[in-house]
Design a protein that fits this description.
Blueprint (H helix, E strand, L loop, with lengths): L3 E2 L1 E5 L10 H11 L3 E4 L4 H4 L9 H12 L3 E5 L7 H6 L26 H18 L5 E5 L15 H15 L2 H8 L26 H27 L6 E5 L8 H5 L4 E6 L1 H7 L5 H6 L8 H12 L4 E6 L17 H11 L4 E4 L26 H12 L4 E2 L6 E4 L2 H9 L8 H14 L4 E4 L11 E4 L7 H8 L4 E4 L26 E7 L6 E2 L5 E10 L3 E5 L5 E6 L2 E4 L1 E3 L1 H15 L10 E5 L3 E6 L5 E3 L2 E3 L4 E5 L2
Parallel strand pairs: 2-3, 2-9, 3-4, 4-5, 5-6, 6-7, 7-8, 8-9, 11-12, 11-13, 13-14, 14-20
Antiparallel strand pairs: 1-10, 15-17, 16-17, 17-21, 18-19, 19-20, 22-23, 23-26, 24-25
Helix pairs in contact: 1-3, 5-8, 6-8, 8-15, 13-14, 16-18
Bound molecules: beta-D-galactopyranose.
């Protein structure tokens, strides 16, 4: 793999500031050592204040000023914020929520991915933007839209979505009889006599048919892919610069791998403290411990996920620089954490880390969101840490990416399937995968995340593929013949492609004589202890068959079974159970592990080993005392 140069950047809104300060801002960015400046993604009302009234002059000048300072511009398409006149032109372009209510104007992302008129409007503005700047020497990368799915905006129950969904169903199933059969619509007399009779799966009296919901989730995801592809193709025809999109943390509403295939670079927006309070499910004591550092595994997981979505090329497009405004609590980072987060991204192979935002806005929704500068342009605390990283980059300007020894398979459809039929409160695929990832990290391992259509697992000693509720036969075969120690379950291959329980019963894995005879979900306060340590929490399967039993309940029931390199875990293991499984699989595969002390985390590149101290206490490592928020980098082969 070729070495990549590590760079820094920031997100800037020239339209928010008087033109007189642009020069100064650009000079300060360059002096700080920044390479990139992302602009434009919310600027539609200034680019085109009225239909066809195009005002490029200010954007021309902004790009020229930034470019003259030596900065490289990432230009965003402005389609996340259609101005009011676009809505006047297409009053039905708003997404409708599950209650059928329109999501109104006055913030952002007020559009439905299925709306043809809005898509045409996007085609027009993106083509104009790319015509104007496609070969501008300072525009060195593009960003499509902004954070698809942010604020729950992927799913829409609009008339446009209904029409599109009916068409999608007709194409997929060809005949309505085939659809009725595939969905099991005979149950409760839900059979349709034409595709035009199909509705959206909201506002039903009790739960809708899970097959119906899954089909709608697939349709919805396809709309995001289509929306992004339209933009990417228009830009690519007009510009040699790479195209990116900024994905989010723990947003699984659409298939990010599929969107990523139309991009050169996947990026994501990393807000560790916001995520800890807003997304991570954990006890209060855990959140207190990491309140100023963020979850020790959440960012790393997304770094690895988006590296996969970008097929190796990925950035952090927005890095939290101080308190944010949107989580239930918004503390300031522990001194040193902005530097740690930045280096951690680089350790996972990021080509760029851009701080959001250059200057804190004194107006509108994000007044209470820190930037590198205060609203009065004085330096905010993150500035010094960014400067420190910029100086340190001189010592380690490049990363030599290297494959990790272990991998996790991640599947967006599995997340939808768990959400559709969790079987118990709080059970979800994302949490299950993150628990497995955490166990690998506690063992000091670097991890690759792989999409579910991976057909070659060679090079990996251990592959974890928990919770894949539907598994293509090709994936089953690729895993079974990979030579890696493979961990599957719970719920692996528990449904066919249309959400029915297959017969022979799951998991029906090649060569593994193990069958899930029954499933049950458990109250959180009723874990089932395992003989030898650890427990199953939340979800437990009864396993039958002749395969070797590798974990049992204290009462003697089989929980994990194995044949050759395939191990099936019939339950949601707690941390101790997952640590046992990881240790066992790594030992069998000859993959070295080392239990990380405290809340230390480790990551290898092709030439370096990094340690990051997420805990509030110092840790001894490699003969050094690493303070809280400390980063250690050593050469490593
Ligand atoms: C991101 C978004 C930015 C800004 C930021 C605040 O989700 O892309 O525009 O709103 O959050 O943390």
């Amino acid at each position: 793999m070729t070495a990549l140069t590590r760079t820094l950047g920031t997100c800037y809104y020239p339209e928010h500031w008087p033109e007189e300060v642009w020069d100064q801002d650009a000079a300060r960015m360059a002096a700080l050592g920044l390479t990139w400046v992302r602009i434009g993604e919310f600027a539609w009302s200034r680019i085109e204040p009225a239909p066809g009234d195009l005002r490029w002059d200010w954007l021309d000048r902004a790009i020229a000023v930034l470019g003259a300072a030596g900065l490289r511009v990432v230009l965003g398409t402005p389609t996340a914020t259609p101005p009011r006149w676009v809505l006047d032109r297409y009053p039905d372009m708003l997404a409708l929520d599950a209650e059928g209510r329109p999501r109104g104007f006055g913030s952002r992302r007020h559009y439905c991915f299925s709306h043809q008129g809005y898509l045409e409007e996007c085609r027009r503005i993106v083509a104009l933007l790319a015509d104007r700047y496609g070969t501008n020497p300072h525009v060195a990368a593009w960003q499509t839209d902004n954070e698809y799915g942010c604020h729950d905006t992927t799913i829409s129950h609009s008339a446009a979505a209904l029409a599109g969904f009916r068409d999608w169903c007709a194409q997929r199933y060809q005949s309505v009889e085939a659809l009725n059969r595939a969905w099991g619509n005979v149950f409760w007399s839900m059979e349709y006599d034409s595709f035009d009779a199909i509705g959206l799966p909201n506002l039903t009296v009790t739960e809708p048919n899970p097959a119906h919901v899954l089909a709608f989730r697939r349709y919805t995801s396809d709309q995001v892919v289509r929306f992004n592809r339209v933009q990417a193709e228009l830009i690519r025809a007009r510009s040699p610069a790479p195209i990116s999109h900024n994905f989010m943390g723990q947003v699984t509403d659409f298939d990010h791998f599929a969107v990523g295939r139309d991009l050169e670079i996947a990026t994501w927006d990393s807000y560790p403290l916001g995520f800890l309070e807003d997304r991570v499910v954990a006890e209060d004591a855990y959140k207190r411990r990491f309140a100023r550092q963020g979850d020790p595994d959440f960012q790393a997981f997304h770094h690895d996920l988006y590296r996969a979505c970008g097929r190796g090329r990925w950035w952090v497009m927005e890095q939290q620089p101080g308190p944010v405004n949107w989580a239930p609590y918004n503390p300031a980072p522990l001194p040193g954490m902005v530097r740690l987060w930045t280096w951690e991204a680089f350790a996972h192979g990021a080509e760029a880390v851009c701080y959001f935002r250059w200057r804190q806005a004194p107006f509108a929704q994000e007044q209470m969101h820190a930037g590198l500068l205060r609203p009065d342009s004085a330096e905010a605390p993150a500035m010094a840490e960014a400067a420190q990283v910029a100086a340190e980059l001189a010592e380690a300007p490049q990363v030599a990416p290297a494959p990790a020894p272990v991998a996790i398979v991640f599947d967006y459809e599995a997340d939808w399937s768990w959400a559709i039929q969790p079987h118990g409160r709080g059970l979800g695929y994302f949490g299950l995968v993150l628990d497995h990832y955490r166990a690998l990290r506690r063992a000091g391992l670097s991890v690759d995340i792989l999409p579910p259509d991976t057909d070659d697992f060679s090079g990996y000693g251990v592959v974890l593929a928990p919770g894949l509720m539907h598994m293509a036969d090709a994936l089953k075969t690729a895993l079974a013949t990979s030579g890696a120690q493979v961990l599957l379950g719970p719920r692996s291959a528990a449904r066919d492609g249309d959400f029915a329980i297959p017969v022979p019963l799951p998991p029906a894995l090649p060569g593994l004589d193990a069958t899930v005879a029954r499933v049950e979900s458990l109250r959180p306060d009723c874990p089932v202890p395992l003989a030898g340590g650890g427990a199953v929490t939340g979800y437990l399967e009864a396993l039958e068959g002749g395969a070797e039993v590798v974990l049992r309940t204290e009462a003697g029931a089989p929980v994990a079974m194995r044949a050759g390199t395939l191990t099936y875990m019939g339950g949601w293991g707690d941390a101790a159970a997952l640590d046992r499984l990881v240790a066992d699989l790594c030992a069998r595969a000859g993959v070295e592990t080392e239990t990380m002390p405290g809340s230390l985390r480790r990551r290898d590149t092709g030439t370096e080993r990094f340690w990051f101290n997420y805990g509030p206490e110092p840790v001894e490592i490699e003969g050094e005392t690493l303070p809280p928020a400390g980063v250690l980098r050593r050469p490593h082969q």
